[in-house]
Amino acid sequence: MKTPxxxxxxxxLCMVSSPTVSNLNDESNNPKRIDKHNxxxxxxxxxxxxxxxKYSEIPSAVFKNKLIMVSSKKIGGLGNGIDKHTNEPFxxxxxxxxxxxxxxxxxxxxxxxxxxxxxxxxxAFSPDEQTMxxxxxxxxxxxxxxxxxxxxEENSNGNWxxxxxxxxxNDGYSIENPHVSFDGTELYFSSNMPGSFGGYDLYVxxxxxxxxxxxxxxxxxxINTQFDDKFPHLSKDGKKLFxxxxxxxxxxxxxxxxxxxxxxxxxxxNLGTEVNSEFDEIAFMFTTEDQGFxxxxxxxxxxxxxxxxxxxxxxxxxxxxxxxxxxEKPLPNTTVVLYDVDGNExxxxxxxxxxxxxxxxxxxxxxxLKVLKKGFEKFESRFSSYKTDALIYKExxxxxxxxxxxxx
Length: 408
What we know:
With 408 residues, this protein is mainly beta. It has strands at 42-48, 57-63, 66-71, 82-83, 88-89, 92-98, 104-109, 119-125, 131-137, 145-152, 160-165, 175-180, 186-191, 201-206, 217-218, 229-234, 240-245, 255-260, 269-270, 281-286, 291-296, 306-314, 316-324, 335-340, 345-350, 356-362, 366-372, 379-384, 392-398.
């Protein structure tokens, strides 16, 4: 008896000659798609920020539809002095308006309760914006950040109360770059705590109902390297982790990478040269589904780290082909179903007389296909759109006839 899945997909990665789709491969119409370094599945448009000064400006989080920024600028700042490690004033938190175009403006002092004479670092908020996690380092040990939690007093206008230093903090190492998952159950952060693969690794801790944290879990060797890995940030759907790393064959310094949260596809991918450079790119974050900010210390900037805003577009490719039988004959009236990596049905089609099917797919994603036709074995297979320069993939789906009892 013949077995199902007897014939496996053959990935041709060739261009389809049909005039209706051939223009998809015209790279002159898609100039950003030819960046060989960009394996993120997104194309980026990057713009300078008008709030940049001779000091550092680093984006951190969104609170009440405002951007919270870490900066050493002294608008309303507290205390004097220079941090010997940055040669800038000690950093504090600022809030900025974000307009409809994604532009940040009007920096104002964030909070005289949270800001101190010490270094205030990155912050994160619970989904209901009632709890804030933030980092702070003392002047006498400014490289060692500790993690704190405060809550917003009910019916108050920014009165943060019940400040506590969390149990994972330690004078022997630094806790930095907190980020809360969008369901509020996990806190991601970077740390150089003992047991890391390199200098700084990325970790995650489960958040208990009272806001306390469980024992941190290292994100493992697919994400973390022997170099520094910092600034975790999840996409709005919670499926992708963006972070900065000096490893993973970075173009130079810290590069920004993206990795899937799914266990089998964690391999980090570079965001490409529109975002990354031979200098340091850090603190990548989304403020909407397709807009956000990051910082870089590239040479043309005004200060140590300047803030940049970006607009991202999903890169779509085409998966096309025909359904045939064992004798290579076209099979019309065949159902072809496309699923995402989590098994959710995205689209289904019924082939016509030419047995042709065509799906729009996202670049650098994994899918599965299921093919159904009466009298034939059910066919399933996986497909990966992991190519930068292939805008059209061609898959020939070959079905095996069912064997009846009369054949035995």
